[in-house]
Amino acid sequence: MRFNTVLSTVALLCASKSLAITWEEADAKAREWVADLTNEEKITLTTGRENMQGICVGSIDPIERKGFKGICLQDGPAGVRFAKGTATSWQASINTAATFDRTLLRKVGEAQGNEFYQRGINFALGPAMGIQRAPASGRIWESFGEDPFYVAQCGLEVVKGIQSQGVVATSKHFIGNDQENNRGSSTSNIPEQALWEVYMEPFYRAVIDGETNAVMSSYNAINGTYSVQNERLLTKYLKGKLGFQGAVVSDWWSIFDVEKSFKAGMDMNMPGGKYWGPDYIGDSFWGEHIQECIDAGIFPQERLDDAALRIIRTLYKAGQMENFPDVNLYVDTLTEENIALNRKVGADSNVLLKNAEAILPIKGVNKIAVIGKDSMPTKFCEDMKCADGTLALGWGSGTTDFKYVIDPLSAVTERAKQDNIEVVSYGEDDAEGGAEAAKDADLAIVFVQADSGEEYITVEGNAGDRLNLDLWHGGNELIDAVASVNENTIVVIHAPGPVNVPFLDKVKGVIFAGMPGQETGHAIADVLFGDVNPSGHLPYTWAPREDYPTDVKYEPEYPDGGEKMTVYDYNEGLFVGYRWFDKQGIEPTFPFGYGLSYTDFQFENLEGDMEDDGLYVTLTVTNTGDVAGAAVPMIFLSFPDVVKDHPARVFKGFDKVMLQPGESKEVTIFIDNHDLSYFDVDAMEYVKPEEGKYTIYAGSNARDLPLSTSVLANGECESENEVDADIDADDNEDSADDEIEVDADIDADDNEDSADEEETDALRKRAYKLY
User: N or C, which end of the chain has less CB nearby within 10 Å?
Assistant: First the structure.
């Protein structure tokens, strides 16, 4: 095994807060600790009490008799929420994903975990690991993109980083909360193979490889049964088949009963109250009602024992049962190191989409016009429910309390002084005013935006999910007006994901900046002036809305947790993102993985070596340009023909390689046996094909894969080295036009035959730890 090359992409980072212990060791300690708990104390562990009216967004009461300080849970993926500007306001997770840099992903997790730790926060409510099915979905910026393999890899690094600091990472949302409209009264109807290969995959990696300490359930139903009531998913699959040992936490106010939710395998009800507000503190669907259900025989005493054990086992696994800091949300952790890391990730996540005539980096100009309200200082508002000024994060629980945001105008002006460049500005989105400011400049930079967020807030008519993919505030008109008077126009876009780009042929440069957090202005200035060579790549496919296989819905609001549901049929099955575009032969605006650089790279000498533990792919990467830069070689696989109705190519490996001009490096990318497997719904197991061959493709994005070779699944030699890299959509699948039918009325609890019931019972016992 080439151990040294496998580890070459994973840096050894900060030391953990304490020596890690195994789940088995944590279990032994937890069993001893809970042995003398009363049922009332066990119920205390499971039921949130302050109903988000205390200092933490969720909390568990102390048990003074045991010297137990209680539990503090706090948002979220972009940093500590409600910290009153004392914590770093990090970039959105989708930006971290755009770096395609495992080292940075781990460092961000570590830095965030440390900020939670110093505040005495037990559970960090992140990372989010949903799949970007539809580009208009409101919370896509909180997760890592469209590809299940890549989302899993990103989530894994962040989980490991957070937990290295002695903080519980809460992987969320389990499962299928991929849109906001009626999220608490909707059903995500997912075919079984897609459930495992697409939507379960990030949680598989988080549980198996990351040993994530906690999982948060989702608001929605899955195939007709709400996540919090779904014993098949929580107990049979997550705790049983995946062997998850930690605690399952509800999303806030997603539980509307005790009988079904507690029985199904939920361990902690957050934030405890039946509904929002101080009137519901202590008024819970759980609490004393758990004991009533045990007394009535609705679920056994062992279910309560299991929930309490899991919560304490989680705390032992995280090293929190002794010497954990007291809760103080306002410890100042806005350090120079965190600021620098946010700025680096912001710059490295900028995706250069167009650079005609090498218009960038900025050089040889005397006067720059900076145009658009998105270039101006951010107006701060509660949960960022306004889009006024430069856009650093979306809105909702995934955002933070900013101490500051570096606006692009200030950063560009500061940097331009170094080169004696004059900067003029027009900080509004008025097309006429923008054109007037741009007409006499050597270069015009137009800053535009679109926003999205969580469904409990409506911003400019958008209730979480975007109403359309257009730029906000007349952005297209502003760009057209500026480009009509200045032939050297560059567009910078701050947005959660793809936007319509009718101006693409009218401008020379386009940078997608995403949502970079507090250092956004510095990050974009670093790239514009060439202090940082852009190396970001799109973690999703960019195309017109109608070209995607699925979309969000805008139905009337239904009562959360009720029988009336918005139905989201996942008829695309395995064919999310680029897989759909390959299957249908649709050319996207920008493919998955797309991203330009100020230099050029060449890939060659592709080889594959199948060994017992997986596939080793080796290739040579050369910087053929004039400046240093980072290449991201990407590996896609076609599975053997014995795997039917499978995508033509799937993303399975990557690395990030810094190269000086003219420098070459040999890169080895390891693909383990799990990623060489598909999910067999008949066997209900992951299966690695034993016959046929894998075709390996290598290149810079899903549509630029110039290298190909093949290896036999059984590891024997394969002489073929040339494979046609073009995809013929018509021949890709015999059933290309067939839809996957899903019964919206499936009830997971009632849809098992007697043989499967026996397996369910066995897995339930494993989950309860009754053996």
Answer: C
For the chain, first and last CA: distance in Å?
37
Say whether both 250 and 149 belong to one domain: yes
In a domain, 158, yes or no: yes
For 357, the 3-state DSSP assignment is helix
Lowest-confidence region among 9-13, 283-287, 716-720: 9-13
Residue 462 bridge partners (DSSP): 459
Residues 6+ apart with CB under 8 A from 478: 371, 372, 429, 430, 431, 434, 446, 448
DSSP annotation of 117 reads H
**635 and 488, same structural domain?**
no
Residue 721 sits in a domain whose CATH number is: 2.60.40.10
Q: Which two tokens stand for residue 314?
A: 């989680």
| Of 254, 177, 195, nearest in space to 465 by CA | 177
- Please state whether beta strands 657-659 and 629-631 pair in parallel, antiparallel, or not at all (unpaired): antiparallel
Which residues participate in catalysis according to the annotation? 251
Which tens digits make up the pLDDT trace of 38-81? 999 999 999 999 999 999 999 999 999 999 999 999 998 999 99
**Ranges assigned E (strand) in 382-455:** 422-426, 443-449
The whole domain housing 414 covers 340-540
Regarding whether 350 and 306 lie in a shared domain, the answer is no
For 739, counting Cβ atoms within 10 Å of its Cβ (0-12 exposed, 13-18 middle, 19+ buried), the class is exposed
Looking at residue 728, its pLDDT comes to 39
3-state helix, strand, coil in the chain (%, to 5): 30, 20, 50
Q: In 199-330, where do the E strands start and end? A: 214-217, 221-222, 225-226, 247-249
pTM above 0.90, yes or no: yes
In a domain, 17, yes or no: no
Q: Any idea what the CATH number is for the domain that residue 496 is in?
A: 3.40.50.1700
Give the tens place of pLDDT for each residue, 589-617.
999 999 999 999 999 999 999 999 999 99
Give the CB-side neighbour count of residue 44, counting CA atoms within 13 A. 16
Q: Which string of DSSP letters, residue by residue, matches 493-544?
A: EE-SS----TTGGG-SEEEE-----TTHHHHHHHHHTTSS------SS-B--
Q: Are strands 509-512 and 351-355 parallel, antiparallel or unpaired?
A: antiparallel
pLDDT digits (tens, 9 = 90+) for 303-346: 999 999 999 999 999 999 999 999 999 999 999 999 999 999 99
Phi, psi of 171 (to 5 degrees): -70, 130
| SS3 (DSSP) at 672 | strand
pLDDT digits (tens, 9 = 90+) for 639-680: 999 999 999 999 999 999 999 999 999 999 999 999 999 999
Closest CA to 454 of 259, 699, 183: 183
Same domain, residue pair 59 and 195: yes
110 assigned to some structural domain: yes
In a shared domain, residues 347 and 282: no
- d(CA 461, CA 480) in angstroms, rounded, equals 25
Q: Compute how many other C-beta atoms are within 10 angstroms of the C-beta atom of residue 503.
A: 21
- Is-contact 251 180, C-beta < 8 A? no
CA atoms of 54 and 606, how far apart (whole Å): 57
- Whether 565 maps to a domain, the answer reads no
Beta strands 634-638 and 693-699 are antiparallel
